[in-house]
Amino acid sequence: xxxxxxxxxxxxxxxxxxxxxxxxxxxxxxxxxxxxxxxxxxxxxxxxxxxxxxxxxxxxxxxxxxxxxxxxxxxxxxxxxxxxxxxxxxxxxxxxxxxxxxxxxxxxxxxxxxxxxxxxxxxxxxxxxxxxxxxxxxxxxxxxxxxxxxxxxxxxxxx
Length: 159
Hints:
By secondary structure, the protein is an alpha+beta fold.
């Protein structure tokens, strides 16, 4: 249920559990970021969560591709609206971030500008300071606090 920046205690998976993996390997000078949800057992709510985050990612990517002048805050708002549409709550403070050559573009102390964040009004199709196309990760994180479950889907958005 917790977003990336949280550090929950170690837990043991049960026979009827839901989990997500968030992987961020670096290949030579290039970073990657990939997240998926997995379900164990037969609780029907958990596979629904797993399917919904995948469908929402596809819907969010389609929206990104169909909206040429989209800003980070607009995509964040759309991701939040999809959580409501699917019957969940949006679970994180961001809905994605820039990715690319490692270490990726950063502004010291800034956790807004280069993220898919409600306060970032950066047009997502602008180029970086080297004149190169920016590449974005879209993160879909849905939670159900009543049932204490969460799902996550993360992948490269801009190719």
